[in-house]
Amino acid sequence: MDTNGEIESADEEFHSQSGRKYRPVVAHDRAVLEMSSLDPESSSTSANAQSSLRKIKVSLPENMHSEERERSSLSPDGPQRESKLELFGFDSLVNILGLKSMTGEQVPAPSSPRDGEDVAITLGRPKAIDLKLGTMMGVFVPCLQNILGIIYYIRFSWIVGMAGIGESLVLVSFCGLCTFLTAISLSAIATNGAMKGGGPYYLIGRALGPEVGVSIGLCFFLGNAVAGSLYVLGAVETFLDAVPSAGIFRETVTRVNGTDSLGPIPSPSLHDLQIYGIVVTIILCFIVFGGVRMINRVAPAFLIPVLFSLFCIFVGIVFAKKDHPTAGITGLSLSTFKDNWSSKYQNTNNAGIPDPDGAIYWNFNALVGLFFPAVTGIMAGSNRSASLKDTQRSIPVGTLAATLTTSALYLVSVLLFGALATREKLLTDRLLTATVAWPFPAIIYIGIILSTLGAALQSLTGAPRLLAAIANDDILPVLNYFKVADGSEPHIATLFTAFICICCVVIGNLDLITPTITMFFLLCYAGVNLSCFLLDLLDAPSWRPRWKFHHWSLSLLGASLLIMFLISWSFTIVSLALASLIYYYVSIKGKAGDWGDGFKSAYFQLALRSLRSLGASQVHPKNWYPIPLIFCRPWGKLPENVPCHPKLADFANCMKKKGRGMSIFVSILDGDYHECAEDAKTACKQLSTYIDYKRCEGVAEIVVAPNMSAGFRGIIQTMGLGNLKPNIVVMRYPEIWRRENLTEIPATFVGIINDCIVANKAVVIVKGLDEWPNEYQRQYGTIDLYWIVRDGGLMLLLSQLLLTKESFESCKIQVFCIAEEDSDAEELKADVKKFLYDLRMQAEVIVVTMKSWDTQVEGGGGGGGAQQDESAEAFTGAQRRIAAYLGEMKERAEREGAPLMADGKAVVVNEMQVEKFLYTTLKLNSTILRYSRMAAVVLVSLPPPPLNHPAYFYMEYMDLLVDNVPRLLMVRGYRRDVVTLFT
Q1: Other CB atoms closer than 10 Å to residue 182's CB: what's the count?
Q2: Which end of the chain has less neighbouring CB within 10 Å, N or C?
Q3: Which residues contact 225 (CB under 8 A, 6 or more apart)?
Q4: Cross-strand bridge partners of residue 209
Q5: Which residues contact 90 (CB under 8 A, 6 or more apart)?
Q6: Tens of pLDDT, residues 874-930
Q7: Vertex 67 angle, CA 65 and 70, to 5°
Q8: pTM over 0.85
Q9: Stretch 259-287: mean pLDDT, rounded?
């Protein structure tokens, strides 16, 4: 045994993916001795195990504290404590693997040693390979570099001169409040759990769903990419203004730049801007390719001169009056402060110089659009969330610190610039900051160049990571090229971002694009605020942010799109339209994913509230919707890969008006629940896929039960909640029961109908389901209703729902009523017509009397000879089969000395009543064949199973009723109305 306590072995060490060291297991190893000590029969080995425990130690990292070492040290009773976890089925790795799986990390399966090998474990956390950033370099510095830009240097003093000190303070406060509220919302969401790469996209997508997240995320990526080109052009133009001799091409134009000389002055050539812009973009791209380590080394080089230039500006302001002041600069003066307090909005030319004939008129809204880009950039830190050590601490602290720092800088600068120079000087000197800078103006040029290059660097760093995060979520297949592995640099995404940036640099004139970029940033801010508002308002159990200083009202205020319309309503519409197009594309082409977003929580709470508001009382007939319970596979066998009869979903859609309503598709698996639970889950997934494929709004449920009757009885009692319980049971008529000699079907079929009657559920049984038309098969003819008993209007309502479908919209409705006497026929017909008129239903009413039934059956008159022959043949066959079945029952009862038994219970058979039932169904069948042989579909009242009759007899009645009718719906209502006459 060596000095650090590892078990000696001649075999070579090897390492697992988790960083643990493995060595072969030998016969005297502690693990072997522990397992043998747990065996009550191996008492002899137990003493050896205890002695071995005193000699073996576990290697610990040297930097582990003494208390942790004591907790980690293994005492002789340690194995006994570990063994108690066997009751829960846990092993020693469950804590690590379980916690990692809860955070969504992909945990590799622990490697197991090969047979005949020993294992030695070194405790301790594996060292991180990737460089992670802290709050300062990971969030604060990137945000500060993005926020401090060229607008402060060349436009801020002009804004103070135009809006005055008072409205400038309001302007800065208004824009700063927008970003501050967004930073608060960002802090709350970012501290609500572990955060992966993607920054605001990750937060918005997990809160508002993948469609909203991808649409806003792509817009934000595009905004960052194009903003990088703006920063590059700003740096190049400032450089060429400061060093005109560096220009390759020379161009002289007449331009007023706010200096005393208003004559022709040289300006940078567009070609110079393009060439230098491309070179600078490529250099920045190489820095980004160097990774996080390279960016961290370069970032201070960009930021420190910027901060020094700000220091020089403030020093120059303080000493401006004493240090060779120029015309218009009064130094810090109270009178100048008073003169510049009020606003003076006016017309200017394109260079911003006051001109009564200028084409541009400035007001507060226009200044909001001009200044707002100076406060953007608060997402620069969250864009690099994958590179942060602790996102839950760094993002709130760094983002809010950068926001408050820059807002304070702007507010102080408003007061200083307003007291420094006259309004004319503020409006005509574009580079007033350079004019007053101490000790010389060149420092400001350096500050402008480095601030814009720093902002461009942060844009080129954050945008590729944002695009890679969107691609890694695998929502849009077209973005698969930009996927990167965890911890890798997004090189392809960086090249694509640089390509967009270079294209915009080549264009040169981005005046029409820049407002849209500002809109993209505002759209992202609105998405973050809306996400926090939704999560805070819903207050789901998983919403537990560490950042406590937030409220849904603040997020709602920050999510307001008012500032977008203040800047430019036209560009607001353009940006919203682009985001909507991306949303539509993602919803069609994107892969569905459930991220547990806030909308799902909202739907859940809305459903609960709606369910409670519905209560348990009966729904008014005006608000009654069919909620069918579709019995998928009750009779016979379907192919294994077909979870439901292909036409059942088509029929379920026919029971809804414009697709409104819910269907519950249920299938029953025979067997033991513990043995069939996994099969049930698989079958449920298949059934759900089938429902989605058929575009039917419904849910799938699979129930495991000992048999079909027991399963259905459980379903009919427990399925649904409150008033959202299914109210109609739909199933296929078992046409195959006699052909396949399935003797158990009659008892099951009758039991299901009786269960529905007891549970007060309506029943719709479909005969001829194989021929049921789909949405593309148009039907002609009539929909015939044989309205025999009061069913609450369900049959009438179903016929009207059928007419709303394209396949049946060309049909007409015929209602057949049964009158006992001829004298009652006309009165019944008038009453039914008046009733249908009050129900707003168009239908032809036909009254069939009992006497005409008798004429049809006895004489076959009225041209119904063929139908009479078919019905009579079916009637004779049913009589013969019933007589044979009854004879078998009597013979069995005499042999066993017991009463008549059928389906496991005693029955009383009244042969005269059986004949009467057969005769009634014969008359109804012959009437249907006479009047409705060519009907598109026939609806008839379903007779209930007679009490104390064998199920076999009832199946014979039903077979006789549906004989030779190609498409038939047998409908039985329940004890309530589903239609009403009143408005």
Answers
A1: 29
A2: C
A3: 459, 463, 497, 500, 501, 504
A4: none
A5: none
A6: 888 888 888 888 888 888 888 887 888 887 777 778 888 888 888 888 888 888 888
A7: 110
A8: no
A9: 76
